[in-house]
Amino acid sequence: MNPLAPLIVDLCAEAAALTARLGRRVEVAALGVLDREGELPLAAPGGLVSPNGACRLFRAADGWMALNLARVEDRDLVPAWLGCDLDDDPWALVTIHAGGRRSADLVAGATLLGLPAAAVGEVSAETPRAPTLRLGRGGRRAGALQVVDLSALWAGPMCGAILAAMGASVLKVESVRRPDPTALSTPAFAHRLNGTKQALALDFAAADGRARLAEVVAGADVLITGARPRALAALGLEPAPLFAANPGLVWVAITGYGWTGEAGDRVAFGDDAAAAGGLVRWTADGPRFLGDALADPVTGLAAALGAMRGLEQGGGVFVDAALARVAAGAATAIGLQAAA
Predict the structure, then answer these.
(1) Which of 126, 127, 150, 306 has its CA 20 to 30 A from that of 199?
(2) Same structural domain, 84 and 141
(3) 189-240 tens-digit pLDDT
(4) Which Pfam family name is an example for this entry (predicted)?
(5) pTM for the full model?
(6) Greatest CA span in the chain, whole angstroms?
(7) Which residue range is the domain that position 65 belongs to?
């Protein structure tokens, strides 16, 4: 049995109650967005390699780490990260060169390069709930709930799918240059996440594309993003001006480690973020993966709950939904034992 199952049941029950108050009651389990079973060739959990094969746990000089090489460009960065010569097998380089280095140094180097790497258990949290900040005075506009979903992959689109099932009008906006890769990698799953949304593809490198983006965001009651702060700032999306112009906005910002400070520069995906939050099983031989990209579905739920609580508060709320922090809160909630 998935050890996260009881927590997921509780979060889904909370989502059902909130959606019923705000619109249509949503049974999240019925949406088919909580797992990717049958969508990918997934191995059984419990090893040093994630079920999808992209992320691995390995020893650094002072503890265990996770590295996720789901993107081709990340594989090409490994030699620069480790300061070694090119090799056809990046994992061989990790085995040879990472063991003598401190995890803090490896994390710092990965942050500079945009590599998703983490020290296992480096993040702690008491709850999987995403913290919220009041940045606007509130006061949502009348009419149907308008959601702009700028996120990709799993957690953010899942948040948008829950709001769409509740009755919101959700517009999924993506770059014509970098569309959401799930449409190709897991098309049926991508349809469950995004099939009930309207779609808009824009060229963010063009002035008219950025102008159109500003227009749709200005009309949003809820904005869902999944990029780092500096990438969004380059598109003209920053909290102060957005909340000044739209004081009733609820902005759900899904990041790897949080919005502020150095954490905002770090990249993360579901498996390495789960490891960072200690959402792993510890054995006598070290940590092992508990499941497939577990930080994603629990963060998708936490993000949706944060959005709905923000709406109940009248808007003007920023929801800081960080994958690693939500994973850490989930690990605490289900009583996972940390390494000795």
Answers:
(1) 306
(2) no
(3) 999 999 999 999 999 999 999 999 999 999 999 999 999 999 999 999 999 9
(4) CoA_transf_3
(5) 0.97
(6) 60
(7) 55-124+272-289
> Could you tell me which residues are beta bridge partners of residue 297?
none
CB 304 within 8 A of CB 239: no
Residue 74 covered by a domain: yes
Give the span between the Cα atoms of 242 and 233, in whole angstroms: 11
Q: Is residue 248 part of a domain?
A: yes
**3-13: average pLDDT:** 95
**CA–CA dist 39, 317 (Å, integer):** 35
Query: Domain for residue 338, yes or no?
Result: no
Q: How far apart are CA 99 and CA 1, in angstroms?
A: 33
Using the CB atoms, write b or e for 309-334: b if 16+ within 10 Å.
bbbeebbbbbbbbbbbbbbbbbbbbb
- The domain that contains 139 carries what CATH number? 3.40.50.10540
d(CA 127, CA 112): 29
Q: Which one, of 199, 177, 180, 200, lies nearest residue 190 by Cα?
A: 180
CB 150 within 8 A of CB 173: yes
In DSSP terms, 174 is beta-bridged to 201
* C-beta of residue 242 within 8 angstroms of C-beta of residue 223: yes
Q: Is 246 helix (H, G, I), strand (E, B) or coil?
A: coil
Asked whether residue 297 falls in the same domain as residue 211, the answer is yes
Do 83 and 219 fall within a single domain? no
Strands 132-134 and 317-322 come out as: antiparallel
SS3 23: coil
CB–CB of 309/132 below 8 Å? yes
**pLDDT digits over 66-122, tens only?**
999 999 999 999 999 999 998 889 999 999 999 999 999 999 999 999 999 999 999
Report how far apart, in Å, the C-alpha atoms of 145 and of each of 24, 45, 170, 311 are.
Answer: 12, 39, 8, 10
Same domain, 295 and 284: no
**DSSP collapsed to 3 states, 141-164:** CCCCCEEEECCCCCHHHHHHHHHH
